[in-house]
């Protein structure tokens, strides 16, 4: 019989055989199959390989794929460390397996067997390297992509209550550290974005800062112009005042005391934590300044679409992370709805009156 350009037929010795053309156009034949079904499966596999081309490498093991992927992964060393650490869980189970044999149900069962805190990052790492194999045409499909990978529950965070707390912390720091704290709470920038900022990114008269780069783990990363991260953020009056009070207006916006850019770990241990203690404020993370900005913005009635744009994140993340913490947002929304209703009260009465008349005549 002929199937997809190949042929299954009975060989002279009584077994089954297949004929097909390989990727180079050469006619090939394989003998010795015990059943027609076995021969047909072998033919389909050969034709599939011809269709996918010479790059197809489903026989490669997961360990070999990881080695090849990491060798070309041109990112910060810390990112490579994160990836290799989170790949260990899948390599312990599937490392010697062919990547073309990995099945969706096996990956789903493996993910479920992991501790809850490990499931999301380990699955994400496996999906990342398998997706590279798909791009490189080594395999057809990414089995890990078909397994749902819900993120773990959000960790608890504690936004500051008001500007008095922020000012109290700033008062315990030097000029640059104090301005940095006000800047983070007032703009919602990530700490690494503030560390990467320069004076040329700031328009004090126009009240806006443009986020163009980030500095983290000793590496300066420029944001592409086409992504959400490179954005313009309004600078409120008290942030402008804090920046105007700085002794310099050139180069790095918030330089480290020893020169260069601020390292977040040094700032946390040498400045941030002691300042909180001196101000008598319960300990919080530096990232809670960003959480504070989001929470206050929602409470002030800032549109969630605009807030997501200003913070360089998704609408889903804004709602998932901050929506339930927007103190006063319910009252604000209620005031807007009541004001809307009051403005249309005449029309509502006319509608209700007409409805009542219809009921009386029916």
DSSP strand count: 9
Helix content: 40-55%
Low-pLDDT stretches are 347-362
CATH superfamily membership of the largest domain, which one? Answer: Intergrase catalytic core
Tell me what portion of residues adopts beta-strand conformation.
Answer: 5-15%
Rg over alpha carbons: 31 Å
What is the approximate shape?
A: elongated
Give a written overview of the molecule:
There is one protein chain. With 362 residues, this protein is α+β, with helices and mostly antiparallel strands. It is 52% helix and 10% strand. It has three domains: 2-52, no CATH class; 62-146, Tyrosine recombinase, N-terminal domain (DNA polymerase, domain 1); 163-298, Intergrase catalytic core (hpI Integrase, Chain A, Orthogonal Bundle). The strands form three sheets. Strands 1-2-3-4 form a four-stranded antiparallel beta sheet, covered by helices on one side. A hairpin with a 2-residue loop joins β7 and β8 (219-222). The N and C termini lie far apart (76 Å).
Task: Please describe the topology of this protein.
Layout: E1 2-3, E2 6-10, E3 16-21, E4 27-33, H1 36-52, H2 62-72, H3 77-94, H4 104-113, H5 116-135, H6 163-171, H7 175-187, H8 191-196, E5 202-203, E6 208-211, E7 213-216, E8 219-222, E9 231-234, H9 237-244, H10 264-279, H11 288-299, H12 304-311, H13 315-321, H14 329-343, H15 345-361
Antiparallel strand pairs: 1-2, 2-3, 3-4, 5-6, 6-9, 7-8
